[in-house]
Amino acid sequence: MKQAKQPILEDFRGSVQWRMFRIMAEFVDGFQFLGDFKKVVTIFGSARVDEGDEHYQAAEKLGRLLAKAGFTVLTGGGPGIMEAANRGAYEAGGESVGLNIQLPFEQRINPYVKKGIGFHYFFTRKVMLATSAQAYVYFPGGFGTMDEFFEIITLIQTKKMPHIPVVCIGKDFWDTLYMHLEKNVMQKHKAVKPEDMKIFKIVDTPEEAVKIIKAGARDRGMG
Q1: Is 219 exposed, middle or buried (0-12, 13-18, 19+ CB in 10 A)?
Q2: N or C: which end of the chain has fewer CB within 10 A?
Q3: pLDDT value at position 223?
Q4: Structure confidence at residue 5 (pLDDT)
Q5: pTM
Q6: How far apart, in whole angstroms, are the C-alpha atoms of residue 20 and residue 93?
């Protein structure tokens, strides 16, 4: 029995080693790729909205305003909000960057990405989206957007990253979450402190978001 199991164990070890090298390569390629861009703003949001949606239109406008202000617009490179933000930056002549995820039967990259790179692993792509920005903007979205939102504010809360602007656009969507966090998480269960609720700001328009982002860039000597 021991002899029968040995090839299986060796195959497993070989598979793990191969994955480790592939993960390392994705991190190296990702950091090198992002090193070429300055004043990056990462934009998150639902992949399921189309150009007739008000949040798509707001994301497109945000991308355009950021590009005109000299910021690089970085997204996950896919459809929906990502496409809208890239589209705004692209049509304004700015840097429109996408970090694509490689799927078995499709490429999710939108046509407005000027420069992009693909990732096999979701978690390496997620690190790249969170690693080099001067601000993070969140539009309404699903589980993925919520995951990315809470990760960034947790990193800021625990001082694992600088307190840079985190802006949520769309009060119709984000105010409900804020009220839940304030009433239940902070006041009732005391799981966060009042100052933690200041990590992010909720606004209704791209113009408000850009104003906050520009102020944050100036505070860091990049304005």
Answers
A1: middle
A2: N
A3: 64
A4: 53
A5: 0.90
A6: 38
Whether 158 shows a pLDDT value over 50: the answer reads yes
Q: Contact 213/168 with Cβ under 8 angstroms? A: no
Vertex 176, ends 186 and 217: CA angle to 5°?
80
How is residue 112 written in tokens?
Answer: 């407005």
CB 79 within 8 A of CB 99: no
Phi, psi for residue 199 in degrees, rounded to 5: -65, -35
Q: How many CA atoms lie within 13 A of 41 on its CB side?
A: 38
In three-state secondary structure terms, 161 is: coil
Residue 138, helix vs strand vs coil: strand
* Residue written as token pair 């164990």: 9
Region label for 6, one of left (φ > 0), alpha (ψ between -120 and 50) or beta (otherwise) = alpha
What pLDDT, on a 0 to 100 scale, did the predictor assign at position 93?
98
Backbone φ and ψ for 116, nearest 5 degrees, come out as: -150, 165
Return the closest-CA partner of residue 37 out of 107, 121, 132: 132
Query: Going edge to edge, which strands form the sheet with 166-169?
Result: 115-119, 96-101, 72-75, 40-44, 135-138, 166-169, 201-203
With CA atoms as reference, report the closest residue to 86 among 105, 114, 58. 114
pLDDT tier for residue 101 given thresholds of 50, 70 and 90: confident
CB of 15 closer than 8 Å to CB of 193: no
